[in-house]
Amino acid sequence: MTTVFSAFSAEVSRRLAALDDDVSSGRLDPAIDLIVDGLRKGGVVQAFGTGHSQAFAMEVAGRAGGLIPTHALSLRDIVLHGSRDVTALGGSSLERDDTVVDELFGLYELDPADVFVIASNSGVNGSIVGVALRAKEAGHPVIAVTSLEHTNAVTPKHPSGKRLSEVADVVIDNRAPYGDTTVDLGDGLAAGAVSSITAAYIAQLLTLGAADRLRAAGEVPPLYVSANVPGGDEHNDVLKQRYGSRIGGLA
User: Fold this and answer.
1) Does domain 30-243 match CATH 3.40.50.10490?
2) In this predicted model, what pLDDT tens digit does every residue of 135-188 receive, in sequence order?
């Protein structure tokens, strides 16, 4: 059993080291540039992911140590506040449905300066590609977080025939392998999924990069303080008032 743990640890460490190399070589700078430029124009970082990539959106938006001008788009909102029946939440039908995009966008208050950061390991499902295309059509910059190894090995499911990586202005490779798992268990089985770990790391790298860039320019980064420490709510509420309902979750 110890062998599989050490194998997984090595796989995770190797991929995080590769992302560190991306940072040191400046490969994340174009994404950080887009985020900082949007924030300076009064924009909000719009984060989107489906399936397990919803965790990426939660890592970007509304968390302690994160940027306050952030908002997470969620497919469940078109059930809670739109026209879709609750049965649509079962399975993966919504994330594969490219027709959800117009209704989803109609639920939120978007600004031309908003920047979209979209995470999808496969990068081919209908809602993912649809949101990216819709954002681009509206003039928003799009940053993709995806597995290049996986997405280039599968067929796009959106009617456009495009992958998320082919729509985005900037693409960040999450370094996950095809199929996501990293540890071979034999008999055709594997475990040790890694995309959620690397995606969360990327989310924090982008947040740190944007905050550091603003700080270096003499600006105060608009960061959340944990609501579970004294004064956290007061600090956050003052800054949240600047953006109002634009960063408010629907549920």
Assistant:
1) yes
2) 999 999 999 999 999 999 999 999 999 999 999 999 999 999 999 999 999 999
Query: Of 98, 75, 73, which is closest to residue 88 (Cα–Cα)?
Result: 75
User: Would you list the domain boundaries of the chain?
Assistant: 30-243
Give the model confidence (pLDDT) of 87-109 as tens digits: 777 777 888 888 889 999 999 99
Say how far apart CA 247 and CA 55 lie, in whole Å: 17
**Three-class SS of residue 49?**
strand
The amino acid occupying position 206 is L
Mean pLDDT over 66-91 rounds to: 86
Largest CA distance in the chain: 57
Using alpha carbons, list the distances in angstroms from residue 175 to 11, 118, 194, 204, 235.
Answer: 10, 16, 9, 16, 36
